[in-house]
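Methods: example folding runs. The two proteins below were folded one after another, and each record is reproduced exactly as written to the output file, sequence line first and structure-token line second.
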Amino acid sequence: MPETLGLIGSGAIGSTLARLAVTAGIDVVLSNSRGPESLADLVAELGPRAGAATPEQAARAGDLVVVTIPLIAYDRLPADALAGKTVLDTMNYYPQRDGLMDEFESDRITSSALVQQHLADATVVKAFNNIAAHQLGTLARPAGASDRSALPIAGNDAQAKRDAARLIDSVGFDAVDIGMLEDSWRSEPTTPVYVAPYQGTPPTGLGEAELFHWGLQTPGVPVPAAAVLELVGEAERGQVRAGIVPGV
């Protein structure tokens, strides 16, 4: 378990991870593009284990660093400050938000492999990218709980994946290794393991806006490691790039 978790990006996923980490006894250093002062309320809510900083400072402070910003901004990540770090990449490609990116439309590279190219001196692990923020908070369970969920991870370095798995365990989930960064597409939108299994089956007859709000409120259903492995195995490459899934 890391002593300090750095977070670059403090939106829904970042703030939820910060809450889970603080509950687990991990110090967090949060950052975003708007500056540390914009995080004052969140830091006050989280208490003495939390602090705010610039992205460069959060990168240098973290034993592990989570990057959770829009993928279109991946090249703004502070590569020098992240050198030598294990970086957990939660980012996904959403064409409706990020615009069309030829690298992904042609399946030439996965998003995490592209991030790894930018962060050449860091070690990237894909993690926390296939669950909506609300269910990330509500489905966290202690180790050994019968209703504990699992999350997939992918990366090229075995030690980095072990570090990621320890963090995931600390915040309430099991980790399932699904392979290398080139395999990380298997947990991307809109593959079978992406978001929907953790939310469960929505009520029938909901419109798009209603479905979005339902996803923000439903406590979700557990997805154990065996189910994650089965769902990952069902993924087909052409399923990716379908746009933003409501509730994420």
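Second run, written to the same file directly after the first:
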Amino acid sequence: MESWDEDGVRGRLRQMAAADPGRERFGADTHRYALAPALPEAEIRAFEDAHGVELPAEYRSFVAQVGDGPAGPAHGLMPLTVPRAEAGEEWAVDDEWTEDRLPGRLAEPFPLTSPRPGRIGAPADALTRGTLMLAEGGCGMYVRLVLNGPRAGEIWQIDVDWAGFVPVSPGFRAWYTDWLRRE
């Protein structure tokens, strides 16, 4: 399993929070620069077994070593498993998060072999099978992790109305650390 510098990630999040006390940066009012505890190996394995998938190593190691969201790009990382209340607060999950967890959906083949830029004529559901929603960017934009096929491990963004479904990062580590550096 690829290792993360948990202290480095959490330290950088503390710096980001200190530099943005009013939570003015995009998404900060949602994720609050906070990370939930890491998930136990047994919980991650149970998720994989229940959905018939193997999570890409970079993402799997993040939720196992660093945390299960929410601090992250866009409005923050969605939790892998059922959201837990932290300090009396609830994580909001939307229909995309719930749809991902329907039986068999994550294990289906990812239908695209190349980007699909521009307005999408097909229902988004037909294109997002075999991907896990990582973050919601607002206005119908979602960031998704490809789980299987030749594009497995890549991060793609879907915007049904304008930009299509296109890759935005070669993997979870690059996507997340780019956000940490950029902010």
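Comment on the second run: Strands lie at 116-117, 131-138, 141-146, 155-159, 164-169.
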